[in-house]
Amino acid sequence: MSAATSRCPWCLGSDLYRRYHDEEWGVPVHDDRRLFEFLILEGAQAGLSWSTILNKRENYRRAFARFDPNKVARFGARDVKRLLADAGIVRNRLKIKSTIGNARAFLEVQREFGSFDAYLWAFVGGRPLQDLRRRMKQVPARTPVSDALSKDLKRRGFRFVGSTIVYAFMQAVGMVNDHLTICFRRTQLAGLPRAASSATLRRK
Questions:
Q1: Is 167 annotated in the active site?
Q2: Which member of 103, 142, 159, 193 has the lowest number of beta carbons within 10 Å of its beta carbon?
Q3: Is 37 tagged catalytic?
Q4: Poorest-pLDDT segment among 10-24, 111-125, 153-167
């Protein structure tokens, strides 16, 4: 199979992009720490390219306690100062402070729903949405589901969770399968089983 015809064209620019596309993008995630990581990284991307964030990903993991929300929620002024001096991440004060605030909001969701996974996947009934997109221009930047999730996250105190960011997050964690019909990963991911852990939960 040639890369040009077997993969989504957005991933063909680098080996890092291809690995991310082949191994992670669109794979359903149900681990809360991984969900927190993707939520923060998608917010960090705002106004930047995803390749920038991928290249800084290990630095983010180091800087933000391997994305342990319990630890990040305890970050204070000294940590903000440290992070603003860290050239390995995006040194944006609003994004850094929002990450700490989002960790605290994340813990509140865990307390209310038992896990962030249960809360999140209820928005799609526990099953990845399966889209049939033939071309990149058919892939939306936002949907009614991302609008609803974005609105609820904001209500709960999350920041950098606009609908466009949330839809990119949904794509990344497999809530929606937006691999194009030409892509070998679309069929592979379409066959994954339903998530029993959150399928029956309803949004509050």
A1: no
A2: 193
A3: no
A4: 10-24
